[in-house]
């Protein structure tokens, strides 16, 4: 378990494409033009190769910024950090040096915790997100001192959104600091499901009953966040589909996803890298980035660019790194994934990830967290805050037009429902090439091997006959991208401008459909229209959206405050929508 990051290590290599079946869909991988540097001073060379892009460059490839028509409703974005903090001055200075205008943020420490030491993960997360948020957005960090305690971290994230106390069953959207615009939380920490119980023993939870209670409590928190509308993004992981040592990296022979990104209440974010259209699966090792080149997203699997994997714990780093995905043994597949269930017809487990974004080459340029220069970094923990920033921009575009934002509460504007709806498929760039198999023999055999048999024998991975030790070559596998949903990149890479426009169009009254419906009811004794009543939630519409009316017909017509809202029918969503 741990943060998703990697650092510079120069070596040549190659990567071969593997294929597995996937669910067909009427989408294809799009190409794009590699963006230029906003400021030439930030075109930095590492070991002779230009690596590391600034957030605005990567954001431009996924449709950011998104146009707003007026001032958007206030919203909140929370970056969850376990066991690390960040130097705001260093991150802001770096982004400003690169010609960007980052927002400031507020640190929300877990009550009673000391501020943890500065760390590379927190620095990466804030570098990615601070320069990409729309106007009227409050940015916070929800920080805890314990680097392993998901439960406390997520409760603190809810509190940072404005939710009251530590009992998630009592959380309500009306408690949010920004209830109209909502709250988005992003967390870059997860652990292989098979390793979780061992991790919990380190937290003092030594019995199965204690561990089951902890896992259930985390799910209760995620459900409480979701019912309050909070979108919680969690990175899917950087260790392929399993096979790393030590216990924090999963169990060999098992293709496993990482929890809690596999929670049905989370949005799981996988990783891509960029490749030319002629890419044949050959490895992308430290290679100079060329602005203006034609590129496309493929499944992230790098070699010799740093790694989160150990082959021999604390001794030998495995040179491979790539996006994690798979089928959960913890969480049952949610209804919103029914349309893609054919990818794993013999399983009822939750599929991960949901979406993907840049995690590997050409990487992210970031300040070194100690304040001594810049480096480059990668991982799904960069992809998750990028998606969070994009969703915040989509919601700003919606609320600036008086429309309902995306949330996580299960209604028509639930982010999962939108991602898996055919009505919005054109907003997601389907990733159809690449594999997250970090152990395949194509890495040391064939016309473009990335390493040698003698090297792998020297670290104990291969025996004297060039076969993997402790594993058969047939059991060390991974997943591959394909047309439609796959277990490496989910539904693909969003284009947030396209998604925003589709959601704007979807919330317009359907031509020839039912007319908008005005709903009104007497205001409660408190006088507030911050209502949680569900009686009027017709046909999939969400709760909330009530405001004070000029009307005064309450109390049997004798006068009194009235709360009002309007529902419109969306043919794209096939639901009634609260017009905000």
Tell me the overall shape: globular
And the CATH topology of the largest domain?
Rossmann fold
Strand content: 15-25%
CATH superfamily of the largest domain: Peptidase S8/S53 domain
The average pLDDT is: 87
Low-pLDDT regions: 1-29, 246-250
Number of domains: 2
CATH architecture of the largest domain: 3-Layer(aba) Sandwich
Main β sheet profile: 9 strands, mixed
Descriptive notes:
It is built from 10 helices and 27 strands. It starts with 31 loop residues before the first strand and ends with a strand. It is 19% helix and 20% strand. Helix 2 packs across helix 3, helix 3 packs parallel to helix 7 (380-399) and helix 4 runs parallel beside helix 6. The radius of gyration is 24 Å and the shape is globular. The longest helix has 20 residues, at 208-227. It has 2 domains: 34-437 and 474-505, Rossmann fold (3-Layer(aba) Sandwich), CATH 3.40.50.200; 508-579, no CATH class. The strands form 9 sheets. Strands 1, 4, 5, 6, 7, 9, 11, 12 and 19 form a 9-stranded mixed beta sheet that branches. A hairpin with a 2-residue loop joins strand 2 (45-46) and strand 3. The protein is of the alpha/beta class and 580 residues long.
State the gist of this model:
With about 575 residues, this protein is of the alpha/beta class.
């Amino acid at each position: 378990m741990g943060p998703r990051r990697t650092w510079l290590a120069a070596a040549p290599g190659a990567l071969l494409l593997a294929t597995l079946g996937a669910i067909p869909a009427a989408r294809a991988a799009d190409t794009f033009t590699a963006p230029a540097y906003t400021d030439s001073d930030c075109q930095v060379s590492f070991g002779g190769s230009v690596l590391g892009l600034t957030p605005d460059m990567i954001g431009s490839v996924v449709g950011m910024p998104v146009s707003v028509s007026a001032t958007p409703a206030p919203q909140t974005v929370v970056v969850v950090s376990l066991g690390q903090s960040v130097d705001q001055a260093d991150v802001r200075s770096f982004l400003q040096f690169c010609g960007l205008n980052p927002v400031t943020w507020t640190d929300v420490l877990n009550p009673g915790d000391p501020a943890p030491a500065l760390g590379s993960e927190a620095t990466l997360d804030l570098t990615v997100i601070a320069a990409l948020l729309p106007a009227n957005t409050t940015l916070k960090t929800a920080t805890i001192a314990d680097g392993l305690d998901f439960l406390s971290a997520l409760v603190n994230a809810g509190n940072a959104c404005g939710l009251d106390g530590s009992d998630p069953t009592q959380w309500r959207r009306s408690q949010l600091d920004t209830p109209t615009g909502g709250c988005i939380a992003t967390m870059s920490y997860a652990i292989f499901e098979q390793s979780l119980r061992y991790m919990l023993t380190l937290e003092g939870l030594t019995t199965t009953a204690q561990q089951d209670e902890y896992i259930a409590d985390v799910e209760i928190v995620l459900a409480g966040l979701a019912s309050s509308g909070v979108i919680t993004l969690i990175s899917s992981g950087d260790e392929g589909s399993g096979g790393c040592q030590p216990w924090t990296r999963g169990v060999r022979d098992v293709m496993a996803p990482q929890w809690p990104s596999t929670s049905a209440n989370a949005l799981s974010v996988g990783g891509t890298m960029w490749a030319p259209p002629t890419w044949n699966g050959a490895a992308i090792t430290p290679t100079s980035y060329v602005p203006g080149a034609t590129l496309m997203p493929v499944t992230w699997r790098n070699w010799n660019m740093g790694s989160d994997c150990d082959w021999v714990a604390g001794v030998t780093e495995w040179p491979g790194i790539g996006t994690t995905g798979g089928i959960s043994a913890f969480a049952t597949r949610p209804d919103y994934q029914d349309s893609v269930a054919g990818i794993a017809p013999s399983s009822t487990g939750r599929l991960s990830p949901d979406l993907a974004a840049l995690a590997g080459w050409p990487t992210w340029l970031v300040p070194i967290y100690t304040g001594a220069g810049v480096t480059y970094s990668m991982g799904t923990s960069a992809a998750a805050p990028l998606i969070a920033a994009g969703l915040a921009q989509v919601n700003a575009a919606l609320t600036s037009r008086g429309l309902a934002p995306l949330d996580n509460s299960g209604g028509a504007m639930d982010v999962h429902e939108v991602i898996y709806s055919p009505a919005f498929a054109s907003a997601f760039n389907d990733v159809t090439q690449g594999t997250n198999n970090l152990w395949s023999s194509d890495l040391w055999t064939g016309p473009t091997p990335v390493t040698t048999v003698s090297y792998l024998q020297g670290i104990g991975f291969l025996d004297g006959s060039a076969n993997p030790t402790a594993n058969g070559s047939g059991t060390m596998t991974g997943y591959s991208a394909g047309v439609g949903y796959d277990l490496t990149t989910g539904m693909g890479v969003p284009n947030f401008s396209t998604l925003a426009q589709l959601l704007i169009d979807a919330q317009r009254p359907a031509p020839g459909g039912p007319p908008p419906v005005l709903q009104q009811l007497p205001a409660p004794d408190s006088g507030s229209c911050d209502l949680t009543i569900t009686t009027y939630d017709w046909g999939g519409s969400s709760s909330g959206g009530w405001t004070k009316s000029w009307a005064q017909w309450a109390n049997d017509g004798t006068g009194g405050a009235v709360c009002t809202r309007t529902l419109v029918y969306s043919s794209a969503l096939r639901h009634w929508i609260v017009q905000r």
